[in-house]
Structure formats: C-alpha cells, structure tokens
C-alpha cells in the first residue's frame, strides 16, 4: 500500500525529529521522510517526501501548496509558512523520479 494514500488532514504530529514525521492514523503509524531540497537548474526549493518531489504551486493565506512534479499526478501537500507539513492528499500512481544530489547540495533529475 502506498503510504501517501492516507489523508493526513487534522492529524496531530505526536513526535518529530529533524526530518522525519510520525503520524498516527487509526492503527497505522506513518513515518514520513521530509526534506526541502534545492534544484540545481532553477535554484527553486522543492519538497521531497518519501522520494516523491513536490514543487511550490502557490502561496496560500495560511501557508503554501506543493504539487507533485509529475504533471499527471494530483497528489499535493500543504505546509504552513514555517514549512510544517499540514496536509498530504492524493495518491501517487507512478514511481518516484530519480534525483541525484550534486556536490554543492543541489539536486538534478536523472533518467527519463
Ligand atoms: Zn505523484
């Protein structure tokens, strides 16, 4: 089962380390690996959650909306302005794209 098929809206975050969020959803425990990365070509900040990459789509009154970089995918994430994950919606019906981290810390997409 794809972990990101869960809707996390209004769930509390019981504990949080640096880049890992633990969510409890009924009996399920979700561990999300969350990372903000910078793309090498554009210099833009993207959000990486469990290997899926989201780009910043829009700024909302209460935060920001991030959409999956796969243009056919409708998964999205909402964060606060402080970049706390607030909501993860949608299911990825594709494999995550492969990204490579360069020596300067930025990322490039590799492969197709
Ligand atoms: Zn996707």
UniProtKB/TrEMBL annotation:
InterPro entries: Znf_FLYWCH (IPR007588)
Keyword list, A-Z: Metal-binding, Zinc, Zinc-finger
Sequence ranges assigned to domain FLYWCH-type in this UniProt record: 38-94
Gene3D superfamilies: 2.20.25.240
Name by which UniProt lists this protein: FLYWCH-type domain-containing protein
